[in-house]
Design a protein that fits this description.
heterodimer, A: alpha+beta, Cytochrome Bc1 Complex, Chain D, domain 2, 4-stranded antiparallel beta sheet, disordered N terminus, B: Neuraminidase, Immunoglobulin-like, 5-stranded antiparallel beta sheet, 2 helices
């Protein structure tokens, strides 16, 4: 029986006034916090570095350490600093700075040659590879490589350098002496991280977006994502195996035990096909490792999460030299997870292995093998173990620090403050918020769980508010979105504060998220995200002949038969303006039976070639399918009069956007 | 009136005055114990209310222990119990009776000046209050169906603008059962931990459950159901420490089952309080005929020391007088409906083992306001075990899986509810919180996105609660 009729609040007359006072007081407190917080949160820095570039914060020269390597003799630490665009070389004993080596734009990957004489750094925004002489601590060569180079390794013989190209979905094989590219090897989509096996015979490549369905079924957006580990013979430079990773989207670093019998890779296991009604019971993500190699037989997936605490966004992974432990950085949980390998092996031996090869559904499994969770700094990424396995170095990307963990005590022994600014800017605070899972229910997801590296995840999600199985939506790229309001495919959110604030809190985080000032910081960060360099655009912005032809089609006013195309049926009418969107809503005939509406906001065209699949529900695997399959009545622009070559031209032009 | 309390109202202050004379023991001088509040009662029956009886049949009083000395926390009350200190440690919610004939009501004391106000006025007993984030509070309210958990504004600024009227403002019932439920803590993730009988809705074994602050998402904390779990408290590690029978046990995030707490031998009662140093204030007694005293124990130590003991009194439910972290506010996503949509991903999956047949349909039963069981109809179960139904909101409901003959293959142990406007997904049927969802589109959603309407106004049949249904 409801009791509402017999109950009254005795202080209701105070409510409005006190609520107003609280809001004003809260704002004042938050403002005060904004002023005081930098000094309270930052470690002391030894110095500063020059402002390098347009990265994400033009005014403060953060280092943003992303990866870390130890020299073969254990004497040096090489720290790849993405935002200051340099490699910091530290003495591994004193942590003093030995040198700073400027590299290219937005460096992402780093590897040492077998003897440690040279250090290779990929520069993801200028498509180059910096070759560094580690004795001189100087760049001796800069090689032009593929699109958005990421991971890099050199084989033990010094014959080849392998570079993972995120945009072209391949690994480039370079002559290790000249840098001349000899061939490309097809990998999973968005190849990103490379690992050389301990015996030097194999290279293992991972990728961050799921592979597109090879066959068209009409249900591509309703089937689990598929990823892979691409196995390359290092001597022959050929792909020799592809280890499938079922239901995985987002694969990061991979590590081997010293004996080569155990391989481990960090990955995301999204639940994008289940309506996102709540987060408990792993409602949005499982975070897992896939184990492979002789020690485990068939590859097996093991979860890192617990029943009420998630291990958000595993990134870096390392195995102790004696194979006693696995260390995993949890970029979203701001910690390092420690796994006891003998207990893990016992778990695998004693628990019946599911037919799927995955224990990801068992949230209690990690209790059998996870032995510690060590808090570190914001957004921990790369990690490196000392040769004796007693010291673990962790790069805290958004703290400008390195955590040094004593693996005997499983505690942070010291924190190295990399030279940098002593203030935390609004942008940096916003970026920290973006990459943290702290705000969601039980720490399960953060913005970057779905917007990997501030981009997207290549998945389609079933969000709850509009019903189960209804309005499946493709996740969008975040680049250059500051001026394309309204947001959401249905244009339902008028601005980013609405998109990232109440909506996110209610339907994604399922938990209280941030205050107004923190939300402002987050929005500031998202608004700051630039478009990455467009790889299809020629220098000087001139167009190739195909692009010129495509442009003419894009802007045409009459069709092939000389018939005028109605204004609203021209490509350039809706896809207008600097971002290729008029920001209005149209029905272009793409409504599915499960859609509440067929009216969608015109998506922007920024780097459109990178953002597939396409359409509001990701049903078009390619740009071409937009017109050849999903535009039978020419409602999505007049295109049915075009032949394939013309569609190809149109695509060539769109790629330049 | 449910309690005779006049004697206690006199006895406790007198006992406090006579403390030095009769040697009522407190060795707090020897131990660094923080300030705390405790309920003192001449008789304490911790689980009596689940049976419809009185926890403090001879009344209770609240004592404030400051610098090792105890004094009555409030004056002018015939009875007081169930203290809960605000997040900033400025105020205290408690259940109290100004005169012995009054029902228990929820009051708030301001520690600075000891002023007291009634936080909520009800016609029947209201007790066990807890502060919720966002300017609300939660308590157990006596109703015709026993005590039910409710929430309302606590009279303080909310600190945010509520924008979902489905989840308030005003009084919001959070539990919808024919049996009693009592809040025992508010977890840091914003969920309310409550105790009720197992199986939920008709059982009598005390068990701990969770519910969001809008009444949605009810579930057992763990499904290794014990013989009597009650009085849980979340400690700094995130573990929930509770009393199992007369011992301490804990739930920890990594484990699917409870773990015993290796505490010194004794009989423990109800909630604990964790100090800033990690020590626990517990209510314990050495023998069944002894009185509960407040003891301080450092987890892992082999012994504990008495902080406060009163002859003739049980001292229970210690709460620290210290600021604490505020739990997260739950942003309610309830829709403005009187029904709920419920999607089962694979009803065949259960902790109870494999089914002895293939489920082809699911039958829904619901209780009406009088507790009568009504058969609401059936819905098909797909080959992958999924089903999608629309169920009545804010009422006890129960599912049974049926085979092709209509025979019951499995029936839920107890009853649960879905809030009006709730859209909920079940991984299986009684799979336990350890079972995560599989990433696939359930067959039922590939066939239709319209739930089978089992929320209709014309139930098929009605029986008395507790009787088997669904044939």
């Amino acid at each position: 029986m409801r009791m509402a009729g017999s109950i009254k609040n005795t202080r209701s007359d105070f409510r409005v006034g006190r609520a107003l006072a609280a809001v004003l007081g809260g704002c004042a407190a938050l403002l005060l916090g904004l002023v005081l917080r930098p000094g309270m949160e930052r470690p002391a820095y030894a110095g500063t570095t020059p402002v390098k570039g347009p990265s994400l914060d033009n005014f403060i020269d953060y280092a943003s350490p992303l990866e870390v390597l130890l020299s073969p003799d254990g004497a040096r630490l090489y720290v790849l600093c993405q935002q200051s665009e340099e490699v910091r070389v530290l003495d591994a004993g004193s942590y003093g700075v030995i040198g700073k080596i400027a590299v290219g734009r937005v460096p992402r990957g780093m590897a040492l040659s077998a003897g440690g004489e040279r250090l290779l750094v990929t520069n993801s925004w200028d498509d180059t590879l910096s070759v560094i002489d580690t004795r001189a601590l100087a760049v001796t060569a800069t090689w032009k490589v593929g699109a958005e180079p990421s991971g890099v390794v050199e084989d033990l013989a010094g014959k080849y350098v392998f570079v993972a190209n995120r945009i072209s979905n391949d690994v480039a094989v370079l002559d290790a002496q000249t840098g001349v590219e000899e061939k490309r090897l097809l990998t999973g989509r968005a190849a990103s991280y490379l690992t050389l096996s301990p015996d030097g015979k194999r290279i293992y490549a991972t990728h961050i977006y799921p592979n597109p369905d090879p066959l068209r079924t009409g249900l591509e957006n309703r089937t689990p994502p598929e990823s892979e580990i691409t196995v390359i013979d290092a001597q022959r430079a050929e792909v020799v195996d592809r280890i499938p990773l079922h239901s995985i989207a987002g694969v990061f670093h991979l590590a081997f035990s010293a004996d080569g019998r155990l391989g481990v890779v960090a990955e995301y296991h999204p639940k994008n096909l289940v309506p996102l009604a709540h987060l408990e019971h792993g409602g949005a993500f499982a975070y897992t490792l896939t184990l492979f190699g002789a020690d485990v037989g068939k590859p097996v997936e093991v979860p890192l999460d617990e029943l009420e605490r998630y291990s958000a966004q595993p990134f870096g992974v390392a195995i102790a030299p004696d194979k006693s432990r696995i260390y995993v950085t949890l970029a979203g949980s701001e910690s390092v997870l420690v796994i006891d390998v003998p207990r893990l092996m016992r778990f695998l031996r004693t628990r019946p292995r599911p037919a799927s090869g995955s224990f990801a559904q068992d949230l209690s499994a990690s209790g059998d093998y996870v032995i510690a969770r060590i808090p570190v700094g914001h957004n921990p990424r790369g990690l490196a173990l000392s040769r004796n396995g007693q010291t673990l170095y962790v790069a805290n990307r958004l703290d400008d620090t390195m955590s040094v963990i004593d693996t005997r005590t499983l505690r942070v022994a010291t924190t190295i403050a990399l030279a940098g600014p002593t203030t935390v800017s609004a942008l940096r605070r916003g970026e920290q918020t973006f990459y943290s899972a702290h705000y969601s229910f039980q720490g399960q997801i953060g913005c970057s769980s779905c917007h990997i590296d501030s981009t997207f995840d290549g998945l389609q999600w079933d969000l709850e508010p509009d019903g189960f199985g209804i309005d499946i939506v493709d996740n969008k790229m975040l680049e250059d979105i500051k001026d394309v309001a309204p947001y959401k495919w249905n244009g339902g959110n008028p601005n980013l504060p609405t998109e990232c604030g109440p909506r996110t809190e209610k339907y994604f985080w399922r938990s209280e998220n941030y205050g107004d000032l923190q939300l402002t910081d987050l929005v500031l960060y998202i608004r700051s995200l630039p478009a990455r360099p467009n790889r299809w655009r020629l220098p000087g912005h001139e167009l190739t002949p195909a692009q010129e032809r495509g442009k003419a089609i894009f802007e045409r006013t009459v069709d092939q038969f000389g018939k005028p195309i109605p204004l609203e049926n021209r490509c350039s009418y809706c896809h207008s303006g600097p971002q290729g969107t008029d920001r209005k809503l149209f029905d272009v005939g793409t409504r599915k039976l499960t859609d509440i509406t067929g009216v969608f906001k015109t998506p922007q065209l920024t780097n459109i070639a990178l953002t597939g699949p396409f359409l509001h529900d990701g049903s078009a695997r390619t740009l071409e399918e937009i017109w050849t399959i999903y535009n039978p009545e020419d409602k999505h622009g007049r295109t049915n009069d075009l032949i394939k070559d013309q569609l190809n031209d149109l695509i060539e032009y769109l790629r330049t956007q | 009136m449910r309690l005779p309390l006049a004697a206690l109202a006199v006895a406790v202050p007198v006992a406090m005055m006579l403390n030095p004379v009769f040697g009522l023991t407190t060795d707090a001088e020897q131990i660094a114990a923080p300030d705390f509040i405790v309920t003192a009662a001449p008789a304490y029956e911790p689980l009596a209310e689940l049976r419809g009886q009185e926890r403090f049949p001879r009344g209770a009083q609240l004592l404030l222990v400051h610098a090792g000395k105890a004094e009555p926390l409030v004056t002018g009350f015939a009875a007081a119990a169930d203290a809960n200190v605000s997040f900033d440690a400025q105020t205290v919610l408690f259940a109290g009776k100004q005169s012995a004939g009054d029902p228990w009501q929820i009051w708030e004391l301001t520690l600075k000046d000891r002023s007291v106000r009634k936080a909520i006025a009800t016609d029947a007993d209201a007790e066990r209050p807890f502060y919720l984030p966002g300017g609300r509070m939660v308590w157990a309210q006596w109703t015709p169906t026993g005590f039910q958990v409710q929430s309302a504004e606590d009279g303080h600024p909310m600190g945010y603008t509520p924008w979902n009227p489905t989840a308030g403002p005003g009084v919001l019932p959070l539990t919808y059962m024919g049996t009693s439920a009592f809040p025992v803590d508010v977890l840091r993730d914003g969920r309310i931990l409550f105790e009720a009988g197992f199986p939920l809705g008709h059982g009598s074994t005390p068990e701990l459950y969770l519910v969001y602050a809008d009444g949605s998402g009810v579930e057992a904390y763990r499904c290794d159901h014990g013989r009597a779990r009650w009085g849980g408290t979340q400690v700094d590690s995130g573990d929930v420490v509770f009393t199992h029978g007369a011992s301490l046990a804990r739930f920890t995030s990594a484990l699917v089952h409870e773990e015993p707490v290796q505490a010194p031998r004794g009989t423990y009662a109800g909630a604990i309080a964790e100090t800033a140093s990690g020590a626990w204030l517990v209510s314990a007694r050495a023998a069944a005929d002894a009185r509960y005293a407040i003891k301080i124990w450092q987890p892992g130590a082999t012994a504990m020391r008495t902080v406060l003991a009163e002859s003739g009194e049980d001292l229970v439910e210690p709460v620290l007088v210290a600021p604490r972290n505020r739990p997260n506010r739950h942003p309610s996503g309830l829709h403005p409906w009187n029904y709920s949509n419920l999607l089962a991903l694979d009803a065949r999956v259960s902790r109870d083992g494999a089914l002895k047949g293939t489920p082809v349909s699911v039958l829904l039963e619901a209780q009406d306001a009088a507790g009568r069981v009504m058969t609401m109809g059936t819905a098909p179960v797909e080959k992958d075990g999924s089903f999608f139904v629309k169920v009545p909101g804010d009422r006890p409901i129960r599912f049974s899986l049926l085979d092709f003959k209509g025979a019951v293959l499995r029936q839920e142990h107890g009853w649960f509810w879905a809030r009006g406007g709730e859209q909920r997904i079940c991984v299986g049927c009684h799979t336990g919180p350890e079972r995560g969802s599989e990433n696939r589109v359930p067959d039922v959603l590939m066939r239709t996105t319209v739930p089978v309407d089992l929320a209709g106004a014309k139930p098929v049949a009605a029986t008395q609660a507790g009787a088997p249904g669904g044939k």
